Amino acid sequence: MTTFTISPYLPSRRATLAEGQPISELMSRALDNPGLISLAAGFVDGQSLPVDIVREVMADLLGDHAEARAMLQYGATPGLPALRREILNQCTPMDSRQETLDRVVITAGSNQLLHLVAESLLDPGDIVLCAAPTYLVFLGTLANLGAKSWSVQTDDGGMIPEALEETLAQLADAGELAKVKAIYLVPYFDNPSGITMPAERVQRIVAIAKQWSHRTRIHVIADEAYRELRYKGEDVPSVIEFDDDGETVIVAGTFSKSFSPGVRIGWGILPEHLVGPVCAQKGNIDFGSPNLNQHLMAEVLRRGLFSAHVETLRSSYSKKLDVMLNAADEYLSPLAGVKWLRPNGGLYVWATLPPQVDTGPAGELFDRSVAEGMLYVPGQYCYPSEGQPVAKNCMRLSFGVQSCEKIREGIAALARAITAAY
Amino acid sequence: MTTFTISPYLPSRRATLAEGQPISELMSRALDNPGLISLAAGFVDGQSLPVDIVREVMADLLGDHAEARAMLQYGATPGLPALRREILNQCTPMDSRQETLDRVVITAGSNQLLHLVAESLLDPGDIVLCAAPTYLVFLGTLANLGAKSWSVQTDDGGMIPEALEETLAQLADAGELAKVKAIYLVPYFDNPSGITMPAERVQRIVAIAKQWSHRTRIHVIADEAYRELRYKGEDVPSVIEFDDDGETVIVAGTFSKSFSPGVRIGWGILPEHLVGPVCAQKGNIDFGSPNLNQHLMAEVLRRGLFSAHVETLRSSYSKKLDVMLNAADEYLSPLAGVKWLRPNGGLYVWATLPPQVDTGPAGELFDRSVAEGMLYVPGQYCYPSEGQPVAKNCMRLSFGVQSCEKIREGIAALARAITAAY
Q1: Which of A17, A285, B140, B143 lies deepest, with the highest CB count within 10 Å?
Q2: Across the interface, do A108 and B108 touch by the CB < 8 Å criterion?
Q3: CATH 3.40.640.10 segments of chain A
C-alpha cells in the first residue's frame, strides 16, 4: 500500500474551546490517591442511594409486559408526559395545565438542559451574567460555546440586585448590552457558596432582567439542582413564580442530587418560545432521554417514594453538614482570617482564607492539603472569566460523599495544611 | 409593578439552523392517524423488544447492593470500562487491549456520537462528503452546525470510490479541499438505501481519505447502526480494520436497533486524538451516559444474552423483509418504472419511481398514499444539500414496526396510490 504523508487533525473551534473541566482533573487526582479524603467531588453519598426503591419499582414496571415494551422503545424528544406532570406536581410546584406541561422538557440531568439553553440563546461573544462565585461546570459550558461569563458581585444573599444593575449599566455604556442574553442564578444552596437567595431578591432580579431587555430578551436561568436538599427552614418560591408572563425565566432541575445521578434525569421549564429550539437541539443530540429511566422516575414520583427518599436524604446530609460546621468551628476557627458560610442545605461549605493565601493548584496550600490527606476545590475555578477580579483565597468543601468521621478528619487535615502554609 | 416593553427572543445561530427534523413531522402525522400504516418510522418492532432479558438482568443487578449503588452513582464521562470491553469483544470485533479500550466512548445512541464527532471536527462552512442518499438525521445535525453535506454518487455498492475522487478533485479545484473534514458512510444496510458496501470498496475509500488528507485530516465516519441486523450472507469487516494507523476511521455503533432504543446506549471507537475532544464535549453536555443503563448492557453482553437476542431479531425481521419484498413483487412490479433494492439486512427498502413522480409532501403521491392508508419517507429528505441534484422520485419503506399483514397492506395501499397518481 502506498504511504501517504500524515496530515494533522485540526480541531473545530468548539473543540479548541472545550477545555477539560478542571474539576475532572481534581477528581482523578483523588482516584489516584485512595487514602486521600476528597472534600472536592460534588458526588452524592453512595450509602444513601435509593437501591431498594429502584429495585422494587423496576421489578414492578418490567413485570408488566406492555409497560416494559414502552420503556424499551423510543419516546418523544421532550420526554414522557407522565413524568413531566409529576415534576410539575412534586418538584417545581406549579399548576400542571397543558400549557405549563408543554413547557417541561426532560434532559440528561440539569446539565444537559443548561447546555441546550445556552446553545439556543448564545452566539460566540455573547454574555451571561453570573454570581461571583458560581457553578464551575456552567462556566466551562459557556467557554465551550465561545460565550463570556461576566461576574456580578454577591453578598450572603447571593447576587446583589444593585450590583447587577450597575453591571448592566456599565455594559450598556460600553455598547455591549445587546450581547447580554441571560442572568444565571443558583438560587437554592448555591454551588459553590451554599447561599440561598431571598424571595425579594430573585423577584427584583427578574424585574431587572425584564427592564433591561431592550433589543433582545435577557432570560433568567434558575439552576435549582439543590432545591430539595434543605435541612433548615422552609422552602422559598422558585424564581419562575415571579415571571408573570412566563417569557423570562428558565428553571433547571434534576434528580441527580435528590435521588440518583446514575439515572441521569433532569428537566427544564422553559418559556414557550424556547421549547422548540431546545427540543430541536436535543433531537439532534440524542432523540430524547432514555425511556427506561423516565418511566422509572415517573413511577417513583407517582408512588410518593421520591419525597419519602428526600426526607431520608435530608436527615442524613443534615448530620454531615453539622459535622463539617462543628469540625470547622473546632479546627479552623483558631486560625486567623479563616471564615466560612453556614448553609441551610445543599452539599457545600464555602470557606475564605486570608487574602494572601492562594488556594489554587499552583499555591502552597493545595499541595500541603494533599500531603496532609485531603482535597478541596480551589475557589478560583468558580469565577466568571470577565468582570470582577477572581478571588484566589477561597475553597469549596463538599460534605456529600464522605462519612462523618472522614469529614472531621478532612477538616482537621485542612487545618494542619493551613497552619503549615501560613 | 412597572410594565416593561416586551423585547423578542433572538435565537442563536445554532437555534436558527436547527430545523425540526422533517421525519418528526411525518411521525406525528402518523400518530394523528391511528389507522394509518406507517412504513415511515425507523422504529424497531415493539413485539420483539427484550423484555424478559432486561427484567431478569435488572433484578439480578439491583439485587446486589454494591452493584446497585454503583449503577445509581455517577460514572466517568467516557463510560463503563466493562461495557467498553464487551463492545470490543462482541459488537465491533477488535482486540480489546488497553490502547483500543481507551478509544471507546459510550454515548446516548450512535446519534450522540455522530453529534460529538461533528462538533469536534467541523466549523461552519466545513464539508462532509456523504452518499446520495444518506441518513437524514445526520444531514440535520450537519445543517445545525452550519456545516455542508456534499453528495457523492452511489451505485448498488454504495458510495463509488471513483466518484469520491472526482468530487474531491472538483473541491480541490474550487479551493475547498481544506474544508473537507470527513467522509460519512453507513456501510451496513444503509439507512435509507439498505445497501451494504463491499470490503474492497470501503478499503479503497479509507485509502482515498488518507491520500487526500493534505492540510487537514479527512476522517471516515462509519455509522454501523445496523451491522447486527443481517438476514443473509456473512458479516463483512468494519471500515476500521482498514485503518492501519488508527488515525482516520471513526466507528459509531448502537444497541438501539439490535436491542432497545429505550436504553439509549451507543458507542464510538475513535482515533486517539478525538477521544479528548469528544469526551470534553460530552462532559459539558451530560457528564456521561446513565450508569444504570451501562451496567445493564455490560451484564446483558457478559451473559451472552445480546447475541442470543440478535438471533431472534434476525429471524423475525428476516420474515418481515421477505413479506415486504414479496408484496412489492406482487403489487409494485406491475407498475411501469417502479424499482426497489433487495437488502440483506437492516430495516429499509429503497424504492425508485419514474422520474416524473414527485414523492415529496408537496407532490400528489404523498397525499394519495395517506388517503389510501400508508405513510413512507420521501427520499428527497435523504439527499445532501450540495453536490449532486436531489432525486425527487424515491422513497424509504421501513419494515421494522408493522406486522407482516400490515406490511402487505401498506405496500398494496402504496400501489393503489401510485396507480391513482400516475
Answers
A1: A285
A2: yes
A3: 52-305
Query: Torsions phi, psi of B80, nearest 5?
Result: -70, 125
Q: Which residues of B touch A1 (CB under 8 A)?
A: 207, 244
Q: What is the pTM of this model?
A: 0.95
d(CA B395, CA B376): 7
Question: What value does the mean pLDDT of chain B take?
Answer: 93
Distance from CA of A9 to the nearest CA of B (A): 5
Rounded Cα gap, residues B170 and B180, in angstroms: 12
Q: Return the biggest CA–CA distance within chain A.
A: 73
**What residue ranges of chain B are covered by domains with CATH 3.40.640.10?**
52-304
List the one residue out of B90, B48, B55 whose CA is nearest residue B314: B48
Rg (CA), chain A: 22
Q: What is the pLDDT of residues B222-236, one digit of tens each?
A: 999 999 999 999 999
Is B52-304 assigned to CATH 3.40.640.10? yes
CATH 3.90.1150.10 residue ranges in chain B? 17-49+308-421
ipTM value > 0.90: yes
Interchain pair B51, A72: CB under 8 A? yes
Q: Which of B40-44, B206-210, B283-287, B369-373 has the highest mean pLDDT?
A: B206-210
Is there a contact between B124 and B284 (Cβ–Cβ < 8 Å)? no
Which of the residues in chain A have pLDDT under 50?
Answer: 1-4
Strand order in the sheet with A104-107: A104-107, A266-269, A249-254, A219-223, A180-185, A127-131, A148-152
Spatial separation of the C-alpha atoms in residues B216 and B195, rounded to whole Å: 30
Closest CA to B13 of A336, A181, A324: A181
Cβ atoms B251, B239 nearer than 8 A: yes
B chain contacts of residue A210, beta-carbon cutoff 8 Å: 4
The hierarchical CATH code for the domain A18-49+308-421 is 3.90.1150.10
Pick from B58, B63, B280: which is nearest to A18 by CB? Answer: B280
Contact A271 B9 (CB under 8 A): yes
CATH class as words, domain A52-305:
alpha beta
CATH topology of domain B17-49+308-421: Aspartate Aminotransferase, domain 1 (3.90.1150)
pLDDT score of A2:
45
The H or E element spanning position B106 is strand B104-107
- Smallest CA-to-CA distance from B4 within A248, A180, A99 is with A248
Pairing of strands A394-398, A377-378: antiparallel
Per the listing, cell 463570556 goes with A148
